[in-house]
Design brief:
This protein is an alpha+beta fold and 174 residues long. It contains 4 helices and 6 strands; from the N terminus they run H-H-E-E-H-E-E-E-E-H. It is globular and about 55 Å long.
């Protein structure tokens, strides 16, 4: 399906709008579910064999994703995830890709850690529902407020966020 094709019928255009709405909802829902610590909800955003890739690891499958999120999120007293933009490329009625630009606030050890992230997503329709087939997380920076004034540059990482990630079935590929 070409992204900009004047020959598309009204039904095809409406279908594309619905796909975009569904994928935007998925991106927003993911952040809300993280903030709410809704473990089944978070993993339901992924396909059964969905993958999460990040610097230093990769998690595959809902069971491993569940273990990963249950181990990682409680390290924060709270989180707030905010989506800023979402660029979507529709491949066909069952597959799409996207780039989500966002930031997150993490309450950790009595301070706020601010992270700027991009999610590079592959989407797939599974059981009639759009889900994440693969989400690759790339952090632009992740700094607590005091470090923001001293060390604000791309790739900066707060000492509060440098704790090793638990194994949870991950590989070293990212």
């Amino acid at each position: 399906m070409p992204e900009h094709d004047d020959a598309l019928s009204l039904a095809e255009r409406v279908n594309r709008l619905q796909i975009r709405a569904d994928l935007t909802d998925l991106a927003d829902r993911y952040g809300h579910l993280l903030d709410d610590r809704d473990w089944p909800g978070i993993t339901s955003c992924f396909t059964r064999n969905g993958r999460l890739k990040f610097k230093g690891g990769e998690i595959t499958g809902r069971e491993q994703l569940d273990a990963f999120y249950r181990a990682q999120l409680p390290k924060n007293e709270f989180t707030f995830h905010y989506r800023h933009s979402h660029v979507i490329t529709i491949i066909d009625d069952e597959r799409a890709t996207g780039v989500v630009t966002a930031h997150a606030e993490h309450g950790r050890d009595g301070t706020c850690v601010l992270a700027a992230v991009r999610y590079y997503d592959d989407y797939a329709k599974e059981d009639g529902v759009w889900r994440l087939a693969c989400r690759k997380i790339r952090s632009r920076y992740c700094l607590d407020w005091p470090d923001m004034a001293r060390d604000f540059h791309e790739g900066a990482l707060s000492p509060l966020m440098r704790a090793p990630v638990p194994h949870a079935g991950q590989t070293s590929r990212s």
